[in-house]
Write a structure and sequence with these properties.
globular, iron transport, 7 helices, seven-stranded mixed β-sheet, ATP hydrolysis activity, about 240 residues, alpha/beta
């Protein structure tokens, strides 16, 4: 997928000049590139893959806010907030929906799901608190990621085992087949291997398209599994 290719949802910053270039979040290369060029998303699933602090969560948070989703997670029908920590980027992003896209979406943000469960339950939603951590994440995606819509996920693998991650991949495949579009930030090499997904590697260079084999994430894991002691022996130093 080329970054100038037509998409179902395109994200653009409407007033880039209102963000100081020498202050966060524009000091993050991926955010600066996004503000300057926007982000036309490919149909299907797009993964943002990169190290801690590379800007993945800032980008998906802004995308969710632009689509009308609460920065702390949930659907377009409920604005849940406990402590606002999001960047000002979301208020400046415009989400342009393609013809035929449905006004439905969900934002799963791993770090705020516990409080969102309580919020949802108070509104008569499913009792996710009664499930295990991983089971609740899978139940959420199976319940809310249905059909045409825009779905934003921030490190959904945080609660999942290997089998649970595979289960999430099945759900994502079903969502795409039903006409949904997904933007997901992840540290999981398993999740990033989803067939047909677009991979955008996030780092000091900004945003760049990559194949699974060329991701730094994948190379690190392959090297570690080949010889764990080459990494672990340095922990005592």
């Amino acid at each position: 997928m080329r970054l100038d290719q037509p998409s179902v949802v395109r994200l653009d910053v409407t007033e880039p000049g209102s963000l100081p270039p020498d202050r966060w979040p524009l000091t993050v290369p991926a955010v600066a590139q996004f503000v300057a060029k926007g982000l036309p998303l490919a149909p299907g699933v797009t993964f943002l893959v990169g190290d801690n602090g590379s800007g993945k969560s800032t980008l998906v948070e802004a995308a969710a806010a632009a689509y009308g989703l609460s920065p702390e997670g949930g659907t377009i029908h409920g604005q849940h907030s406990t402590r606002a920590t999001e960047s000002p980027l979301g208020s400046l992003v415009h989400a342009q929906r393609g013809v035929g896209t449905r006004r439905w979406g969900f934002f799963l943000r791993a770090e705020t799901m516990h409080s969102w469960y309580t919020f949802s339950e108070q509104l008569g939603g499913p009792r996710f608190h009664e499930l295990s951590h991983g089971e609740s994440f899978l139940a959420v995606v199976r319940h809310y990621l249905t059909g045409p819509g825009f779905y934003v996920l921030d490190e959904p693998e945080a609660a999942l085992s290997f089998e649970g991650t595979m289960g999430l991949m099945v759900t994502l495949t079903d969502v795409v087949a039903a006409g949904g579009q997904v933007l997901c930030a992840t540290h999981s090499p398993i999740l990033a291997a989803l067939p047909g997904a677009t991979l955008l590697e996030v780092g000091d260079w900004g945003l760049r398209e990559a194949s699974w084999d060329d991701l730094d994430l994948v190379r690190h894991w392959k090297t570690f599994f080949a010889s764990p002691q080459n990494y672990l022996r340095h922990l005592a130093d």
